[in-house]
Amino acid sequence: MSSRARILAVCSALVVALIAVAVFAPLPVTIAYPGMTANVLGSNNGQPVITVSGTRTRPTSGQLRMVTIAATAPNADVHFTDVWKAWWSKSEAAMPRSAVYPGGGSVQQVNQRNLNEMKQSQQEAATAALKHLGLSPSQVKVDLKLADVGGPSAGLMFSLGIIDRIQGDGRGSDLTGGRNIAGTGTIDADGTVGAVGGVPLKEQAAERDGATAFLAPKDECSDAKAELPAGLKLIPVNNLNDALASLTALRTGGPLPTC
């Protein structure tokens, strides 16, 4: 074998080795897909998701459905083949692990952080709802129970659920008008709706579970409308008042905001 042939053979072997490493080495990536949804006006594990004491409540119909994404565990090995498969799938997405699990840590640490974020989100949601209704948190108590769900992205739907339980639309009707309405977005105590991740996957989960309208943070319009499922109406909102006004428009046939 000539020296040139030997050099080419060595180079080819190196290229094959590099390709093998690229294909089989774990990547700092998480594969996400549509997760569970839950009607915040309903029950979870046999208990009401929303319990209010200190003021009158009302029966409701329709659904206000919070949505989630599911993802490979923070310690799971994800390879190039998994990313390639997700690239071509509408029901999967390859996302930087740091975006799905900011702060890193063990599975137990991630779960605890998510639970803490959910608890904080529930407190903010209750405060925003009671403030909108002109009720004092010192007199009205709101208890939110939703097992096996973490993170802050259900805040908007919790606030809407609390308002529907206590007042509805203020005229004896449900906020939903009997519809199945899903949505996502964090919420501050002042009612500001914040961005969340994985909106296209959450829309798929909402459509899968029967929702016909989807409330999403306006800042995420681009992602939200990119792969919007047919039959799911996208409604962008900036704050709690926007969401309530849009629900009124849905019930009455009024104009709705668009992305």
Automatic annotation (TrEMBL):
Domain of life: Bacteria
InterPro entries assigned to the protein according to its UniProt record, in alphabetical order: Lon_proteolytic, Ribosomal_Su5_D2-typ_SF, Ribsml_uS5_D2-typ_fold_subgr
Transmembrane parts of this sequence: none
One Pfam family here: Lon_C
Domain Lon proteolytic: 151-245
Name of protein: Lon proteolytic domain-containing protein
